[in-house]
């Protein structure tokens, strides 16, 4: 495991724990916080086992086997657009149902995390060049994971205080 993965794993584990704490302390949104804890626990497992990269490699192998790998440059931007649309629609639908600024902040952070993870799996070359650029001791993607997880943590801390 490299420094970038360690940062991502730490961010996701801390987020899962804070969401679990918010679930225990929240009377109005325990289900939401429990779901967020579960999501970040799964993201922690993914980070530890590098499952999203296995998925990415499997998709590349399947495209090559089907003879479709050469068309990836046409498909990847469409997939990124669908991912963005899914994130925006999901945010719009869920945000209206949530009570409290903490839950809404956490939802925004989770949407950002899922967008970064999805973008990494889709793997558009120009985007990868930005995500995997070193910034200090880790790659830019570690900062993106950490920033999006920090939004969730702030929301969980706010909800746990109520």
TrEMBL record:
Residue ranges spanning the membrane: these are 32-49, 78-95, 101-123, 135-157
Top-level taxonomic group: Bacteria
Sorted alphabetically, the keyword list is: Membrane, Transmembrane, Transmembrane helix
User: Which protein, by its recorded name, is this?
Assistant: Uncharacterized protein
